[in-house]
Amino acid sequence: MASRKTSRPNRDSGDKYSVLLPTYNERENLPLIVWLLVKYFGESGFNYEIIVIDDGSPDGTLEVAEQLQKVYGEDKILLRPRAKKLGLGTAYIHGMKHASGNFIIIMDADLSHHPKFIPEFIQKQKEGDYDLVSGTRYRGNGGVYGWDLRRKLIRSLLAEVLYFFIFFLLFFFSPPLPPLVHSRGANFLAQVLLRPGASDLTGSFRLYKKKVLESLVEQCVSKGYVFQMEMIVRARQLNYTIGEVPISFVDRVYGESKLGGNEIVSYAKGLLMLFATT
Amino acid sequence: MTKLLQWLFGVSLLGALWALVTFDLLDLSLPQTYREVAWPMPFYLLISFGCYSLATVGYRVATFNDCEEAAKELQEQIKEAKEDLRRKDTAEFSSCAGRRSLVECSATFEEICSLF
Ligand SMILES: Nc1nc2c(ncn2[C@@H]2O[C@H](COP(=O)(O)OP(=O)(O)OP(=O)(O)O)[C@@H](O)[C@H]2O)c(=O)[nH]1
Ligand SMILES: [Mg+2]
Q1: A131: in domain
Q2: For A6-38, b where at least 16 C-beta lie within 10 A, e where not — what string?
Q3: A164-182: pLDDT as tens digits
Q4: What is the 3-state secondary structure (H, E, C) of chain B?
Q5: Looking at chain B, which terminus has fewer C-beta neighbours within 10 angstroms, N or C?
Q6: Which residues are in coiled coils (chain B) (predicted)?
Q7: Is A89 a member of any domain?
């Protein structure tokens, strides 16, 4: 594959990055994440906008966002609120419709995804002209903070099950087997063991070409939790190229997790749904 | 055809094949060794798959990185951000005084302050 290499990130290139920040009760986190975004985009010089999609948070996240808009300008902070909590998946779709960049960055607003990785994502994307770049907690210098052994075990188990489910069950009967990411010369076994482009299936810190995201969203049927997973699965099905950047994931400091309930049950449900519909 | 159907189809095909060899359903008079190898095959496969999975999960848990540094850095930056934001909000407060009623401004200012 003839990858066009740009030796230096071209700051004056026409590229613009739209960051989608879905929020629900992130009053404490929003000013901080925006501050960090502005800091790192400022330092790296890329053209950007931040789109806040608030779902009528009762804690007044939207008012905080309005204040931030005054501080940082309406061209940098865009507010695309919705009246009530309609879920994460549709929040991305809603935000994307209003994005003016040719690249979209999706991240959580709870500070578990650090904006310092964004320049790395962009660098990576340019390196291989990747269709999407996914942050991964499970390889290289990636990792987590604030997880006990139990959670690590559960997550590792889930990751294992997910991997087999998706890459064996979903793709096994799809000839030709979709080529796995750009891994020149890697054989099948290496791909299975190293799982390029699939080491963090449920991660939600990603950079997409806007066109790619649009076509993926069109095809995705799942809602909520499984959405991220399905996006990667579909991306593989459509032969999009995937780059990976190791990220550190720091558990939220402020606010509450919106995804309570039994993680394992919701994963299982989502997987079965994918299995039955693809 | 959904993946589910494909798999059901594939699994029943393999199952039939296995039964065919193991119980010699078609009276092909296969050598005894074939049958001896065939019948415990599913268990062998299951066990080796289980072992492989246990090993990878164990390896993953053992090598899961703890990002102490990242957490510390974030804490520092949160402090920095709060100070900077407080300064910016104050500037915003004084600049909006001319445009809007003072009550409105101080309300928003108070609100921002109460955040931190
Ligand atoms: N607009 C919108 N945002 C949401 C909704 N649910 C969650 N979010 C946001 O999506 C991001 C991820 O949600 P989290 O609650 O952090 O989910 P999580 O990261 O899996 O769980 P924890 O980090 O453990 O709390 C956060 O920025 C939330 O504010 C929703 O229904 N609508
Ligand atoms: Mg989170």
Answers
A1: yes
A2: eeebeeeeebbbbbbbbbbbbbbbbbbbbbbbb
A3: 776 666 666 554 444 444 3
A4: CCHHHHHHHHHHHHHHHHHHHHCCCCCCCCCHHHHHHHCCHHHHHHHHHHHHHHHHHHHHHHHCCECHHHHHHHHHHHHHHHHHHHHHHHHHHHHHCCCCCHHHHHHHHHHHHHHC
A5: N
A6: 64-91
A7: yes
Residue at A233 is within a domain: yes
- The DSSP secondary-structure symbol of A215 reads H
Tens of pLDDT, residues A80-135: 999 999 888 889 999 999 999 999 999 999 999 999 999 999 999 999 999 999 99
pLDDT single digits (tens) B52-78 = 888 888 888 888 889 999 999 999 999
What is the per-residue pLDDT for A169?
A: 65
Look up the pTM and report it: 0.80
Q: Using CB atoms within 10 A of its CB, is residue A223 exposed (0-12), middle (13-18) or buried (19+)?
A: middle
Does ipTM top 0.85?
no
> Is the pLDDT reported for residue A186 higher than 50?
no
d(CA A126, CA A120): 10
pLDDT score recorded for residue A35: 96
Which residue out of A71, A74, A150, A273 would a mutagenesis test of the B interface target, given it has the greatest number of B Cβ atoms within 10 Å? Answer: A71
Looking at the domain assignment, is residue A234 inside a domain?
A: yes
Ligand 1 neighbours (beta carbon < 6 A): A 22-24, 26, 53-55, 85, 87-88, 91, 108-110, 112, 252, 257-259
Indicate which CATH number applies to the domain containing A110: 3.90.550.10
A145 with B3: Cβ contact below 8 A: no
Domains of chain A: total = 1
Give the model's pLDDT for residue B79. 94
CB A51 within 8 A of CB A99: yes
